[in-house]
Specification:
By secondary structure, the protein is α+β, with helices and mostly antiparallel strands. The chain contains 14 helices and six strands. The protein binds a DNA duplex through helix 6, helix 8, helix 11 and helix 12.
Length: about 280
Amino acid sequence: MIRPMFSLKHTLESGQFFRWTRRGEGDYAVHTGRALFRARQEGGALRVEGASPEIAREFFSLDHDLTSIDAALRRDPKLRPALDAYPGLRLLRQDPWECTAAFILSIASNIPRIAGNIADLARVYGDLSRLGDVESHEFPGPRAFVDERELRRLKLGFRAAYLVQAGRLAAGGLLEEIEGLPTEEAKDALMVMPGVAEKVADCVLLFAYGRLSAFPVDTWIRKVMTEMHFGGRRVPDRAIRAFAQERWGDLAGYAQQYLYHWSRNAWTPASSRGRRAVSRV
DNA sequence: GGCCAGGTCCAAT
DNA sequence: ATTGGACATGGC
């Protein structure tokens, strides 16, 4: 395969996608939509088994001109540490329903738990796929989620009701209609779904529909943005989104993903600087 | 053990 | 148009 600016590791491990397992250094099994494949990256070359190069190219957004995106964002000095930390990190193009469900499950949760919830749903409702020695269940279609009690037994909590109702709307074709809409209208359409408000809608726009201007504001982005750009004072999320739009325009989504990943792993907030070092896994 | 987690919804200012 | 709590569950 070609060798664009790309890091499989940084892309998969940046918290935008939950259906992967690491098999070794630079070696991953990926399950997205109906595609189960193995992806390996050694010395820059990307090798894919179990899916066509077209599928991989689409999923990993290898058509994005990341060299230009990086150069443009790099003109912002405050973004450089995050850009330098994760060269080759790309926004994915995920399956819309799978992505919507995943970020409904993300509400007031954390990455390990989200991944666990998704794996449970797939195990219970999804068809089994095989690729060599890898077994993985497909993420179930929107019609699978009809029984809220059953979902609560899988420990989805209050998210269970959201998932059932969002599934109903998705089964009715809502997510297909969104494809051709301008981003603002697409966002309004997504927000018709229970459990989908500004933040989740922005995640779906960014991670599934390739709307690179979308800027999801979660607790981490709120923290890093208020400290870096608002003097540490709490401001409405809409002010943060407006600031991001103004500063990064159509690349705000890329800025967001680098900032998100960086703020969780490398960034030391001024509020805790000078105290004991924070240790993370 | 209380607090917070890639929030959302609803009711009461 | 804003603000405070409730909502399930798990991890620290």
